[in-house]
Amino acid sequence: MKNFATSPRLVLLAAFASLAFDTANAAAPIVKTNAPGYFRSMLGDFEVTVLSDGTVDLPVDKLLHAAPGKIDKALAKSFLKTPLETSVNTYLINTGSKLVLIDTGAGGLFGPTLGKLIANLKASGYQPEQVDEIYLTHLHPDHVGGLTQDAAALFSNAIVRADQHDADFWLSKNNMDQASADSKGSFQGAMVSLAPYLSAQRFKPFDANAELVPGIKASASYGHTAGHTNFVIESKGQKLLLVGDLIHVGAVQFDAPEMTIHFDSDTKAAATQRKKAFDAAAAQGMLVGATHIQFPGLGHLRKSGKSYQWIPVNYTQLR
Predict the structure, then answer these.
(1) How far apart are CA 174 and CA 285, in angstroms?
(2) 89 closest CA partner among 212, 255, 243
């Protein structure tokens, strides 16, 4: 009988099979990229698209006002540590008649890990020139930097709006001259980012608690900055409360809402406004969106004594 095990043809086939197996199991290169940073959901008849501007590592143990070691312990409960990779979220609202962007991220003002707004806006199916209006919760660099690139406006057709108190403060050269050295950059960022819109007369500040377009209202929440503003989005009885920088570190400040951060210009007022907004959101069952909660930064709040429980949105595919 012929010995098939030693047949030259079978030996050759076995060699090829072994080579194919080894190739298929070779180590693939690590890709190190994620999906485009946008998350879409509906609020009544309005389409809400959360756009990521990226993340930035923050030494929150040094920025939050707390006893030494307290922040590290609080973060550890959520399997986090410092520096904390912190999201920068923006919110695009399509009302059906207006396309409104709320905050613009940092652009080039905070380094290479941010400034991804425009790429994610395009990936989500929109173009910058389609944006009709831009509302700013306040004029800190990580909220205004995405307005411009190389001193040119990135949103060629948009009207930009912010509370008059914030505009008066951050666009004042006199205030910048009197500011500390580490604060001057915030003034410069606001001035440079808004310059092309100011020159084109497309920056139109508003007074507190104004309805800006049907379904979108400004709600004064002064404290984090002189004119910090929440925005209430409402369609068909459903509400979304965008709270900007009322909270920075969810793993800490939901349990300890009285805790403030170095960036707050008036710490007492900032803590008061956080409690006021969170109590209202919890009582009314409003959806909440925050700039620095982990992307997409959307969820609901449940009151728990003096603290709050954060319940992130359920992932959904729009149908």
Answers:
(1) 43
(2) 243
Question: Does pLDDT of 22 surpass 60?
Answer: no
Three-state secondary structure call for residue 30: coil
**Res. 33 pLDDT band, cuts 50 70 90:** confident
Q: Which run of H or of E encompasses 77?
A: helix 70-77
Q: Exposed e or buried b for every residue in 229-265, given b needs 16+ CB within 10 A?
A: bbbbbbbeeebbbbbbbbbbbbbbbbbbbebbbebbe
pTM of the predicted model, to two decimals? 0.91
CATH numbers and ranges of domains, the chain? 38-312 (3.60.15.10)
The answer on pLDDT for 180 being more than 90 is yes
- For the chain, the C-alpha Rg in angstroms (whole number) is 24
What gap in Å lies between CA 197 and CA 71, rounded to an integer? 40
Q: Enumerate residues 6+ apart whose C-beta is below 8 A from 305.
A: none
Q: What is the pLDDT of residue 319?
A: 76
| Residue that is written with structure tokens 């969810």 in the block | 250
124-148 burial, b if ≥16 CB within 10 A, otherwise e? bebebebbbbbbbbbbbbbbbbbbb
Tell me the per-residue pLDDT of 285-299, one tens digit each, with 9 for 90 and over: 999 999 999 999 999
